[in-house]
Amino acid sequence: MIADAEHMLLRWYAVVAGGLVATYLAWPYDLRQWPFLAVTLGVAVPAVVSALRRTPGAARAPWWLMLASLGLYNVGNVVWILIATTGGRVTGDGSVADLFYSAGGVLLLAASIAVVRRQGRGDVGGVLDSMITAVALGGVLWDAVLLPALTRQDASVGRQVSLFVTVIVIVGTLGAMLRISLVSPAGRTASVRLFTAGVALALAGNVAAALTIDANGVRPDWTNNVFLAAYAILGAAAVHPSVAMVNRLGRAPKDDLTRGRLTFLGVMLVLTPLIGGGRAILGLPTDGVLIALSSAALVPLVMVRVARLAAQRRAAEQALHRLATRDGLTGLANRGACLDHLSAALDEDSHDLTVLFCDLDGFKPVNDRLGHAAGDELLVAVADRLRTCVRGDDLVSRFGGDEFVLICRGPEAVDVVAARIAELTGRPFTAAGEQVHIGISVGAARARPADTIDALLNRADMAMYEAKKSKSVGALSLIVV
């Protein structure tokens, strides 16, 4: 029922907004401000309000920002309608309306970044990518296309600054939407695609408006049709049923320090100086201040981005190392890590090296009676206590099942560690809410010259079995060989 209502709302929106956009140029020139305001104020704004009403409280930030953005754009539109129509001709921009357009663009960028952060669970990398894209591609568009046109038109400084800010923030918004498309399932929805298309049309409208102004400062009114289409499509993104996917919390993106990502960052870093330098060599107008400022901004941004990617790569490698060397249940060193440690210890110096092979007594009855979950709880408790038995340079590992291997150094290692193990067996353990008593059989083998890993472990293992034959549950039995 709700889905049907949403599709009906979208159809009505498409008819009304599409009709106004399609017939805009057919209206009498003196009346065209009315279909323009009907779309920007009477259609697009209510569409965003409807998205705001359908969005849970925690996810409303992007839509509040977008609503505020459209509000500023509409203030600029009203100001523009009041002061930018003279003698039946639409003059070039450059009025106070540009201030509202620039501020609206900044809030639209903030809305897209809010979506990026929500879809990526605080995706700082996506925000940095958006900023890098804005500075690099926006700078190229400005230096190679817009600045030469504004120079020929002898545009005012205010007009140049306003258009520069507008272009940078719109390109940054497109970069943010591209980030969503690449890392989030929401990026494949019609709502995100419509939003991206609306922003792209806004950029096209600004470029067209800048390039088509004639010598008298007049631009053709069809450029307003492009802006009108941008408003209508942005509103369609808000009323489309797939907006529900955008409102959901996404998953953290996987950021890898790949060759493709490094290539992207490298290209963004050299793009503006390369284009600007090429234009300077050809004697074409070039904004030297822009090149200097963009380089000053891009270098630290790219360095921070690479540093974050490198840190994430190190964290991933460390996580893989932990998975490869740690027992998943107890967090102790696993069998492979134990063997590696023992091999290194034998290669370094076998003097005063002792291996203690430990096997739990009474574990199987507890596991059978209380269940595997209780058995796992008991193994974790034993592991925690064994950690307290070893000294700083010793190693405690889970060798498999209910077997643990300790690797110790020092002439008194066996006596000290065995005393601590005896103390831990004297206290009951808790498993599945019950107190249970278990014992530990320990076989200790001191390393001999030319010992191999297998020989040392086998002696400790055999000593453990000898100890097991002569003990009772709840006590420690130790045999040293």
TrEMBL record:
Keywords in alphabetical order: Membrane, Transmembrane, Transmembrane helix
Segments passing through the bilayer: 9-27, 33-52, 64-87, 99-116, 128-149, 161-182, 194-213, 225-250, 262-282, 288-307
Ranges where the GGDEF domain occurs: 351-481
SUPFAM superfamilies in UniProt: Nucleotide cyclase
Gene3D superfamilies attached to this UniProt entry: 3.30.70.270
CDD domains xref list: GGDEF
Full protein name: GGDEF domain-containing protein
Naturally occurring in which organism (per UniProt): Paractinoplanes pyxinae
